[in-house]
Amino acid sequence: MKFYKRLILLSCLIISSLNIKAQCDVSFSADTLHCFGDSIIFSNSSNIQGTWNWNFGDPFSGIRNTDTNQNPSHKFTFPGLYSVRLIGNDVTNNCTDTFFLSVRVMAKPSANFTIQNACISNQIEVFNSSASSPFDSILKYSWSWGNGDTANIKTPIYSYQNTGNFNVKLKIETYEGCLDSITKTISVRDQPIINFNADTLCQETN
């Protein structure tokens, strides 16, 4: 009987010891798709209180490739796919856990166009040479002619009804939500006035 009592007591002590020691659970979240140049915020959702060791998988960023803040941010050096690692160490319960998350950074599109100076009321054609990355494509084109008028097609045709200098702006957006814009100035002049006088010529008679 004493043997069984001791066995039960020992079992209770073991179970109590297991219950006291918490299990580490390290995790974090972030938007997994970003545009180049964005600063990405990582939200730590771990259930421990301890120290944090982040590695963003971005060695070209130098000392910025690692962080010890609980909820850091990072701006990646180049477009590409990165594996972000978080190691959490719970000093109270003496446990450690690791979590990985893949983050893709998309290359920004490049907005560009060619436009020539023109005369008032003449039709103006623009050459749109905008480009996107190989893994994305342009979804929207937004033109502003500098006088309140706009257009939303790739290659618009437009004519000004007033003279002056106008800032023509093109803004593009890709399917993944990456943006770029460019502004160029166009000069619109009056139509040239053609005027000449001609003397009357008479045929000479003999």
> What is the average of the pLDDT values?
87
Main β-sheet description: 5 strands, mixed
Q: What oligomeric state do the depicted chains represent?
A: single chain
Beta strand %: 35-45%
Q: Give the class from helix and strand content and strand pairing.
A: mainly beta
End-to-end separation: 158 Å
Q: Looking at the structure, what is the overall shape?
A: rod-shaped
Keywords:
206 residues, mainly beta, five-stranded mixed sheet
In short:
The chain has one helix at about 1-20, and strands at about 30, 35, 40, 45, 50-55, 65, 75, 80-90, 95-105, 115, 120, 125, 125-130, 140-145, 150, 155-160, 165-175, 180-190. The protein is mainly β.
Would you mind describing this structure in some detail?
- The strands form six sheets. The protein has a five-stranded mixed beta sheet with strand order 2-9-8-5-6, with no helix packed on it.
- The radius of gyration is 34 Å and the shape is rod-shaped.
- The protein is built from one helix and 18 strands.
- By secondary structure, it is mainly beta.
- The protein starts with a helix and ends in a 17-residue tail after the last strand.
- A hairpin with a 4-residue loop joins strand 8 (80-90) and strand 9 (95-106).
List the helices and strands and how they pair.
Elements: H1 2-20, E1 28-29, E2 33-35, E3 40-41, E4 43-44, E5 51-55, E6 66-67, E7 73-74, E8 80-90, E9 95-106, E10 113-114, E11 118-119, E12 124-125, E13 127-128, E14 138-144, E15 150-151, E16 157-158, E17 164-174, E18 179-189
Parallel strand pairs: 2-9, 11-18
Antiparallel strand pairs: 1-4, 3-7, 5-6, 5-8, 8-9, 10-13, 12-16, 14-15, 14-17, 17-18
